[in-house]
What does this fold into?
Amino acid sequence: MNGTLASINGIDLYHEVHGTGRPLVVVHGGVMNAETCFGAMIPRLAEAHQVIAVDLQGHGHTADTDRPPTLAAFAADLVGLLDHLGIDRADLFGFSLGSLVSIEMAVTHPARVGRLVLASGHIRADGYHPEIQDPAQTSPLLPTASDFEAMRVAYEAVAPDPEHFFSFLEKLQPVVSAFEGWSDDEIGRISGPTLLIVGDRDFVRLEHAALMLERFPRAQLAVLPDTTHVQVIRRTDALLGLVEPFLD
It folds into this structure.
């Protein structure tokens, strides 16, 4: 995948544009990048959409800065990228952290967001299983040692500062650990159709996914069987089978 850098809000934001059609921004998970999350899906998605794949601050090809990573900052960067590309409105497909960024953008910049695909996202602090946020706990729901190693290798392969992986991982933790979520009113004002996707062994509690289904005004929910959090984005065929008809 070949992309370019755009000066957005004081950072050089790496992004790629594939295909033509209704714009679709794909937003990766934490300490991942566009290629590792969406590389297998982009060719198919680009057959019917203008796919904008972005590496958020400190992720992938986009260097980190002194700016604290926050959902608000990430969402503002996406808005700035749409401005840079001359796009008024786009659909969003986010995974994990990317889902939270997509929701933040839909809440704060509703006119810029069309349809939402939210994979492994939550809207309240209690949306995750309790053991996920307790560093003293071990759980089969958590990424394995090999999962973390794959993230590290992918990071070091393209990052401007390859040695920054572990320090950036620590820097990013408060984005989720201090997450407070959105009010019912804020979620209720998201008018676009929303597709919620979780694994049955995700970080996200199934009861919380059911709550999200109630709170988003125009939502559908899909639960992937025998699927953990990190496995959700690897279920390429299942995701395309859900996402393509929803977007089209």
